[in-house]
Amino acid sequence: MDKAATLEHIQKRQRQWADGRGIQYNQANGPVLNLADNLFSALNPATASEFKAADGSELGTAGSATKMSSLHSSSALVCNVFDYWRGRELAPLLRACGIQDSLDDLRFEQRFPTGLRGKPPNLDLLLSRNGKSPATAIEGKFTEPFQPRDHGGFSFSYFRSKGLWAGLERCRALAEAVNAQPDFHYLGVAQLLKHVLGLHRKFTADGFELLYLWYDVPGSAAANEHRSEVERFSQAISPEVRFRSMTYQALFKSLVPCVQGTSYAAYLRSRYFPEASRAS
Question: Which is more confident, 79 or 59?
Answer without folding.
Answer: 79
